[in-house]
Design goal:
469 residues; alpha/beta; Rossmann fold; 21 helices; 12 strands; 45% helix; globular
């Protein structure tokens, strides 16, 4: 570790960036409702989530939306006091209870006044903290996650992130040499400019690393708040799947499956000879490691479960509900083309029939969808389609109408606060949907409609069905 990266005695954040707040993004995969179909498809019983926890919740947008739109009681911890103040303002505006703390992971893990949890969320944090903090997180999960409970963890993965490490090291080293009196954003700007000029000289590393120029183009245009927290912490640790599995095994967790419903699309990208190799691997850790290698995966969203209860993969599928959330209900060409050309995945006709059925924007169970298609597809076929559409953010998991109605008051109050904070020039932001039990991303124009909307206003079809009907 470089000498200038060693935290001082006063550095309670242990090298994690707190000078600038994180982004105000919403992360749908952290919604407890989102995991139900994935676990059932894996032959596992999803927990009923009454108590949930988010570690490193950033501005608290996801936590507040889930606390308002769902039925779980949320506890959270983030090292940045400004994040905690913002999150508390959101949950107070919603009129819901949430227990939020601004402590180190070590101190938070040592608390004795916390409940046991059915669901714990860890988005991105795993890659940005020290080994000691990771050990504290593992200990916390091992102690606080109930049997049958689920951990959602997302992280920078290898081998996909391997090529970025030298570039990240370069910009961080440059930022460390900058005038310490400058704020972090000017230092990031100068470091990015320096890297651009260096890459323009066509160094050998750039020549030998396909895709690096494209990755840098994405990086240089990114929100500086995101870059500060993603790349400029003291610790930045992409990991192989097997390393993460070894850490979480110490907490009694086993891999339950991907949290991004990515399998339906990934199967289209894997060549037959590659799939044959995967099919011949019994060990789940080695199989996921090989899959990451085949796909050159740079980020993973995963579910891990403690003391899982196995069920037949078909049990419970009938009642799982989905609803259309996209503006334009159509598969992207890069997904639809492999479906048609390779003959893998759900038949194109079935996908189109499901999208047509859902175009009225009414939530339906998988059993209802299968029945409406008149035997065209089995329940398992419909579940395949649902996974594909969830993975493409065309549909969302939906809770019952009764649960949605119970959440409506809190989501209305939270949305009033979120709309007030929809600053000029903002891109897309999330609001709370009682039907989704979580967030719905809206544009600035849609936010403007909602501020003074009446149910019959033009352009309100999507929003009305998901939020205010």
């Amino acid at each position: 570790m470089p000498a200038d990266a060693v935290p001082s005695a006063k550095d309670r954040a242990e090298g994690y960036v707190t000078e600038i707040g994180y982004t105000f993004d919403y992360h749908p995969r952290t919604n407890p409702l989102y995991m139900r179909l994935a676990l059932r498809r894996a032959g596992l019983e999803p927990p009923s989530v009454a108590q949930a926890c988010e570690l490193g919740f950033g501005q608290g947008v996801s936590l507040a939306i889930h606390a308002a739109a769902g039925s779980a009681r949320w506890v959270g911890n983030d090292i940045n006091p400004d994040h905690v103040r913002h999150a508390r303002g959101l949950v107070e505006a919603a009129g819901v209870a949430a227990d939020l703390h601004a402590e180190s992971f070590v101190d938070f893990a040592a608390r004795t006044d916390l409940p046991s949890f059915d669901f714990i969320v860890l988005h991105g944090i795993w890659s940005w903290v020290s080994d000691g903090n990771r050990a504290a997180i593992v200990d916390f999960v091992g102690q606080r996650l109930r049997p049958g409970g689920v951990l959602h963890v997302s992280y920078n993965a290898l081998p996909g992130k391997a090529a970025m490490e030298p570039l990240r090291h370069l910009v961080v080293q440059h930022a460390r040499q900058a005038d310490k009196g400058e704020g972090i954003v000017p230092r990031i700007d100068r470091a990015i400019d320096f890297a651009a000029r260096l890459l323009a000289t066509n160094p050998a590393y750039l020549q030998d690393t396909p895709g690096l120029a494209r990755s840098f183009d994405t990086l240089k245009d990114a929100d500086r708040r995101y870059l500060a927290h993603e790349y400029f912490n003291r610790d930045w640790r992409p990991m192989h799947f097997a390393e993460v599995a070894a850490h979480l095994a110490a907490a009694g967790l086993v891999f339950a499956g991907p949290a991004g419903y990515s399998g339906a699309v990934e199967s289209l990208l894997i060549e037959p000879a590659q799939q044959a190799m995967l099919d011949g691997i019994d060990d789940p850790v080695l199989r996921e490691t090989v899959r990451d290698f085949l796909l050159n995966r740079g980020f993973r969203y995963d579910y891990w479960i403690k003391a899982p209860v196995e069920r037949d993969a078909g049990d419970g599928l009938r009642d799982e509900r989905i609803v259309l959330v996209a503006d334009k209900p159509a598969l992207p060409f890069e997904v639809r083309a492999p479906l048609l050309l390779r003959g893998k995945g759900p038949p194109d006709a079935t996908v189109s029939a499901v999208l047509d059925l859902l175009s009225d924007r009414r939530a339906r169970s998988l059993a209802e969808i299968a029945a409406s298609l008149g035997g065209q597809a089995s329940l398992a076929d419909i579940a395949d389609v649902a996974e594909l559409l969830l993975g493409q953010d065309l549909v969302g998991a939906a809770q019952s109408d009764r649960e949605a109605e119970a959440a409506r008051g809190a989501t209305d109050r939270l949305n009033a606060r979120l709309l007030d904070g929809f600053e000029p020039g903002a891109g897309r932001r999330a609001l709370a949907s009682p039907l989704l039990g979580g967030g719905l991303t809206v544009s600035r124009d849609e936010a403007g409609l909602l501020r003074g909307a009446q149910p019959g206003d033009p352009g309100m079809t999507r929003l009305r069905s998901l939020m205010i009907a």
